[in-house]
Write a sequence for this structure.
């Protein structure tokens, strides 16, 4: 079973993705802020990280920077899932090492699941 | 106001960009122009005065008086322009912030509804599914409205960058026809594309021209009642590429034709036939075509149909 760490402060989304990814045969580890996300990324060694950018305590860009700086976490693919859509934000996240950048409003749930499966190599 | 702020005021192009206004409507440029007019008028008064008035003290007094009056008028006019421009900028920024804030709850809503209608959740009855579909349609409409509002606010604050590239317009048109094929089929509309051979490339921002063609084709299909046909034509005309889209839909009443590129305007007959639509599509379409160095126009007859066209410069 593939493990996905979902760093997102909206509990509605945690629940929705938890449900849909479970039905795809994945285990979802929820993290409601950047700090917990970073800790869980080290401890649980997920196969993929889904990351929001506007997060309490440590923001998404910082999380991404720290994930890519640590030996244990730098090879985990990170999909950024956010509503920030400025060109500067996209460039910054990709530069910091994000695998894919998805603007929430532009994708359906099924499309996001497809991208996740692709990133997991399925 | 500190020294830095005062110097910033002198950077006329930057100030005009901040308000998203053309030069001749920009308060800072107007102030500069008024300054030049004041100097000119002062010199003219001096020249005329020294010819007809003998006492130099009287001339000085007249010149000072005229200058003071002109200067006061200039300050009043430019200040009021500045206030108007500022109010307009704040309005656009407000729309932008509100739209951004609406996006998060909207995508949550949309995804939850999608999950409920996906068949992945047990215990959803046929009846419930029917209502969820209504919720889904409406959340899609809200999403489209919010995204239109965001584009409008970006256009008005000059924050929509043009990322121009050379593209074949025909490829883009074919892609959009494919995207809207199922919508056309469901609406009983046939789409025909007549493109001249060996058309040259145009130099535009593809993501923005995509919005233009999508809007025009979506309108053409949407406003055809019962069965119909949409004809798209692509031709080279002098230094431009000409795009035309013709439908046999409800048409635009003559009295409404001068308003259709205005924000939030919706023609009365359209409201009668069709409730959906924000009234922003054609405003966005026209703004993008103009920004891309092109022109847009249409002719229409109520009950017979509409033909919209635009031209884009060939590089």
């Amino acid at each position: 079973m593939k493990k996905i760490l979902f760093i997102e402060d909206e509990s509605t989304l945690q629940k929705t993705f938890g449900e849909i990814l479970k039905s795809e045969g994945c285990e979802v580890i929820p993290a409601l802020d950047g700090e917990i996300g970073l800790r869980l990324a080290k401890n649980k060694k997920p196969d993929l990280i889904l990351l929001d950018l506007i997060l309490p305590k440590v923001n998404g860009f910082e999380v991404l920077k720290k994930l890519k700086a640590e030996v244990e976490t730098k090879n985990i693919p990170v999909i950024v899932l956010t509503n920030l859509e400025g060109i500067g934000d996209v460039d910054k996240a990709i530069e910091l090492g994000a695998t894919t950048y998805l603007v929430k409003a532009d994708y359906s749930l099924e499309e996001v699941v497809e991208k996740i499966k692709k990133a997991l190599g399925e | 106001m500190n020294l830095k702020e005062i110097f910033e005021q002198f950077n006329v192009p930057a100030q005009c960009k901040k308000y998203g206004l053309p030069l001749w409507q920009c308060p800072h440029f107007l102030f500069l122009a008024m300054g030049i007019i004041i100097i000119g008028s002062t010199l003219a008064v001096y020249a005329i005065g020294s010819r007809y008035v003998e006492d130099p003290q009287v001339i000085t007094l007249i010149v000072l008086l005229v200058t003071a009056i002109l200067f006061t008028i200039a300050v009043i006019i430019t200040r009021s322009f500045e206030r108007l421009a500022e109010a307009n900028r704040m309005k656009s920024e407000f729309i932008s912030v509100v739209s951004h804030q609406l996006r998060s709850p909207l995508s949550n809503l949309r995804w939850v509804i999608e999950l409920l209608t996906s068949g992945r959740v047990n215990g959803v009855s046929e009846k419930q599914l029917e209502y969820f579909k209504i919720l889904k349609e409406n959340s899609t409409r809200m999403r489209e409205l919010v995204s239109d509002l965001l584009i409008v606010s970006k256009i008005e604050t000059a924050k929509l960058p043009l990322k121009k590239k050379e593209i074949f317009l025909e490829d883009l048109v074919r892609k959009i026809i494919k995207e809207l094929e199922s919508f056309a089929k469901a609406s009983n509309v046939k789409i025909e594309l007549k493109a001249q051979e060996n058309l040259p490339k145009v130099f535009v921002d593809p993501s923005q021209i995509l919005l233009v063609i999508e809007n025009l084709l979506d309108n053409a299909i949407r406003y055809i009642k019962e069965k119909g046909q949409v004809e798209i034509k692509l031709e080279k005309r002098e230094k431009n590429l000409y795009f035309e889209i013709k439908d046999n839909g409800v048409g635009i009443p003559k009295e409404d034709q001068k308003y259709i590129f205005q924000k939030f305007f919706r023609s009365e007959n359209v409201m009668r036939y069709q409730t959906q639509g924000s009234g922003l599509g054609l405003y966005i379409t026209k703004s993008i075509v103009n920004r891309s160095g092109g022109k847009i126009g249409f002719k229409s007859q109520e009950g017979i149909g509409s033909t919209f066209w635009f031209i884009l410069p060939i590089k």
Remarks:
- The interface with chain B takes residues 10, 12-13, 16, 19-20, 23, 83, 87, 104-105, 108-110 of chain A (CB under 8 Å).
- Residues 2-119 of chain A form a domain with the Rossmann fold fold (CATH 3.40.50.2300).
- Chain A is about 45% helix and 20% strand.
- The beta strands of chain A are 2-7, 26-31, 48-51, 78-82, 100-103.
